[in-house]
Amino acid sequence: MRDILSTIFDGPGVGPDPSAAGNIWPAPLAAGEERELRSAAVLVPLIDRADGMTVLLTQRTDTMSDHAGQIAFPGGRVEPGEVTPEETALRETEEEIGLSTSKIEVLGRMNARDTGTGYRVMPVVGLIRPPMSLSPDPSEVAKVFEVPMEFILDPANHRLEKRDERGESREYYVMPYNDHYIWGLTARILVELGKMVRNA
Fold it and tell me: Which one, 68, 121, 146, 197, has the greatest CB density within 10 A?
């Protein structure tokens, strides 16, 4: 799996199409809109375990003001002074789950995603080799768990569902795993990662 990943990603700061308008980060003023997209980054942590690679995910606490209780990657909004999404993703990861940046080998970026809540989210893929020590922030993270890469690679585990929001019907990916309901942006990123690995 590590050999496959090395063919997909070209290193820190490099994405699939850096010049594409949708991958510009921080996000510029959205075309035709009054507001500017807020910039954010998440880490897609790949755990290189001896018995198979996994993806680490978090479940947000029910007390969070945004996306309470949802499954997410560690990450968040850019802070002043941060120039790259890698800086944002690594800082947020250390703050949320206590994973030291020294344990993370940044492999590269995936395509950025603009969300309906007004964010441009840049996924940064990082490789972690155990052993590792985690210390989740109880105010933000209710649970940390891992999903086998084999599960993510199987298209049979990806499905589309529809939901009515503000009078409009929206289609989104869901990826239930055990008792975890992975959906929305997190599921979209995992589906894209699965496609990238399968097509490598």
Answer: 121
